[in-house]
Amino acid sequence: QKTRGHGQAPVNIALSKYWGKRDKALNLPINGSVSISLPGLGTETTLSITENDRDIIRLNGTTLEPEATFAKRLSQFLNWFRADQTTAFSVDTSNSVPTAAGLASSASGYAALVLALNDLFDWQLPKESLSLLARFGSGSASRSLFDGFAVWHKGHQNDGMDSFAEPLATLWPELTIGLVKVDTREKPVGSTVGMQQTVDTCDLYKAWPEQAERELKTIVDAIQKKDFTLVGKTAEHNALSMHATMIATWPPIVYWQPESVAAMRMVWALREQGIEVYFTMDAGPNLKLLLQEKDQTAVKKAFGERDIQIDFIQPFE
Ligand code: DP6
């Protein structure tokens, strides 16, 4: 056996969202989702077995207190992989610093960790199986095993063996992602808690599972046809619908800041001018834009004039 395992994985942005679990222990989603990975932004993890009596977890070069939320969640995940009670791991994990933050690092984090475990224990498992394992750490991590587009199937089985992600073969070099930085502070309600409160208290949520599955299919078909307009408008509508369920939750969950709404209005104004740009948003105030490479200069200029920071990423470069 190797003494050290290594893994690296990108962050991903959902074009149709995962929101709601049908099984909290197994992290099984109520609906499927589709995402795009962002190369160059993500997590790198090294892992080994230590003689220490408990896990040692380093995040971005700093050793965490075992009681820290991040460390506790990670150790709990590692419980699935200990030979016995006495096995302890030493984990060294770093996120590549996103200039425009607000990107889920739990997704790339658990995907990189599972790749490191696969390397350490020499499992030689296919990516789809590793996706299933990453799902236990964080649902969205199931999609971070792949470059490009990935579809996470909700699955039907109670044991979750059919709930994992698979890549889509489509390459789309013109597709560009814009990261609009509104606020990089930690979100007030994490997605795990947020989606549970939504499932428990939001009447509007009853319409979500069917809409989400329908929009997932629309987006996958549109990706395969490279129908940018259909991908963009379906993704934007899907994100706004998810946020509508968050707002209609009790207590209400509102991730938007005034600047988020200002940025949305910018996107809509650009579309009025014939520049085709769409947005999506996750459990935070930042926007992620979908555009085509030819419109990058116009979009940069429009946001620049309002002093809003934006970074561009070409997922297929
Ligand atoms: C809004 O994957 O972070 O970003 O499974 O509880 O770890 P857990 O939740 P998480 O939720 C992501 C929610 C989202 C939408 C998405 O990425 O699909």
From TrEMBL:
<feature type="domain" description="Diphosphomevalonate decarboxylase-like N-terminal">
    <location>
        <begin position="9"/>
        <end position="165"/>
    </location>
</feature>
<dbReference type="Pfam" id="PF22700">
    <property type="entry name" value="MVD-like_N"/>
</dbReference>
<dbReference type="InterPro" id="IPR005935">
    <property type="entry name" value="Mev_decarb"/>
</dbReference>
<dbReference type="InterPro" id="IPR053859">
    <property type="entry name" value="MVD-like_N"/>
</dbReference>
<dbReference type="InterPro" id="IPR014721">
    <property type="entry name" value="Ribsml_uS5_D2-typ_fold_subgr"/>
</dbReference>
<keyword id="KW-0547">Nucleotide-binding</keyword>
<keyword id="KW-0444">Lipid biosynthesis</keyword>
<dbReference type="GO" id="GO:0004163">
    <property type="term" value="F:diphosphomevalonate decarboxylase activity"/>
</dbReference>
<protein>
    <recommendedName>
        <fullName>diphosphomevalonate decarboxylase</fullName>
        <ecNumber>4.1.1.33</ecNumber>
    </recommendedName>
</protein>
<dbReference type="InterPro" id="IPR020568">
    <property type="entry name" value="Ribosomal_Su5_D2-typ_SF"/>
</dbReference>
<feature type="domain" description="Mvd1 C-terminal">
    <location>
        <begin position="182"/>
        <end position="301"/>
    </location>
</feature>
<keyword id="KW-0067">ATP-binding</keyword>
<dbReference type="InterPro" id="IPR036554">
    <property type="entry name" value="GHMP_kinase_C_sf"/>
</dbReference>
<dbReference type="InterPro" id="IPR029765">
    <property type="entry name" value="Mev_diP_decarb"/>
</dbReference>
<keyword id="KW-0443">Lipid metabolism</keyword>
<dbReference type="Pfam" id="PF18376">
    <property type="entry name" value="MDD_C"/>
</dbReference>
<keyword id="KW-0456">Lyase</keyword>
<dbReference type="InterPro" id="IPR041431">
    <property type="entry name" value="Mvd1_C"/>
</dbReference>
<comment type="similarity">
    <text>Belongs to the diphosphomevalonate decarboxylase family.</text>
</comment>
